[in-house]
Design brief:
The protein is an alpha+beta fold. The chain contains three helices and four strands, in the order βαβαβαβ. Helix content is 31%, strand content 15%. The longest helix has 13 residues. The radius of gyration is 12 Å and the shape is globular. The two termini are 21 Å apart.
């Protein structure tokens, strides 16, 4: 399971890195930022015409990671999109920004 979260703080890369590190310590899965190995592959969707770049991607290893990720997004007032492996032609599974 994977969900992506988009942050208005994207302009502040240091802030994203610190937040990613804090979240990484709380989950079993991965937290991916732009430029990190696996980020580009994780942000892709079935429809190759969709080219969105979320500020952060959380690759959840289980339900507990989903709970932590949603709590993190709620705490920082971040929008969340869910990518579960389906083929949404509109690309709504990946946020931009």
């Amino acid at each position: 399971m994977q969900f992506t979260t988009s942050s208005v703080a994207r302009r502040d890369h240091k802030g994203n890195t610190a937040a990613a590190r804090a979240l990484s310590g709380k989950i079993k899965g991965q937290v991916l930022l732009p430029g990190v190995a696996g980020y580009d592959r994780s942000r892709c969707v079935f429809n190759a015409m969709i080219d969105r770049r979320p500020a952060m991607i959380i690759r959840c290893a289980g339900a507990d990671d989903v709970v932590e990720g949603v709590a993190f997004a709620r705490t920082y007032d971040l929008p969340v999109t869910v990518k579960g492996g389906g083929h949404g032609v509109a690309g709504r599974a990946v946020a931009d920004g």
